[in-house]
Amino acid sequence: MAVFSCVALLGLVLDRVSKLLALRYLSLTESRTVIPHLLSLRLLRNPGASLGFGSNSTWVISVLAIVACIVIAAIACRATSMAWIVVLGMAFSGAAGNLIDRVAYADGVLNGKVVDFLDYGWSVGNVADIFLMCAGVGMVVLVSIGVPWRMSGRTADADDGNE
Q1: Is 101 a catalytic residue?
Q2: Where does the record place the catalytic residues (predicted)?
Q3: What does the pLDDT average to over 87-104?
Q4: Residue 93: domain span
């Protein structure tokens, strides 16, 4: 559980710090090119999910994020594969990072907007989104190569970190 907690905490810290810097140094009216035709910095307050989906259902997305965090943490407590524990920590930090925005920047209950600032031209996201995407890719890879999240004959308490 220590590795999961460290990965999740690292992801949350990187996400929060990057969002606070974006809020301090970027404005809603300007865009700063980092890599031409690939990456710009542009502040956006997103009520929805990725690509703006669900912008009228912010509270539903918030509830789903809460459920996701609980399920991810529960699975991580039982996981014995170090690769899965790291991937689950990344997924938790991504879901929790955006959930924090929905709570911290809410006008009502769970209806806040997520701070997005990484403009790829086709989508605007944040560090939490990067952690979610990496976790998703990691999960696909782990499933594809047949890495079980729980090694037979081992318990999470007996994990020696050799995986």
Answers
A1: no
A2: 116, 129
A3: 95
A4: 2-152
Among this protein's residues, is 119 annotated catalytic?
no
Does 38 map to a domain?
A: yes
Smallest CA-to-CA distance from 127 within 42, 40, 41, 18 is with 18
For the chain, the domain total comes to 1
Burial class (CB in 10 A: 0-12, 13-18, 19+), 93: buried
* Residue 23, CA distances (Å) to 30, 41, 103, 136 in order: 12, 11, 16, 27
Neighbours of 135 (CB within 10 A): 23
Q: What is the pTM of this model?
A: 0.86
Selected catalytic residue, list 15, 101, 116, 159: 116
Q: What is the mean pLDDT of the chain?
A: 89
Catalytic residue among 129, 157, 159, 160: 129
pLDDT: which is higher, 69 or 112: 69
User: Residue 160 falls within a domain, yes or no?
Assistant: no
- 146 vs 134: CA distance, rounded Å: 18
For residue 158, being part of any structural domain is answered with: no
Question: Is residue 139 within 8 Å of residue 87, measured between CB atoms?
Answer: yes
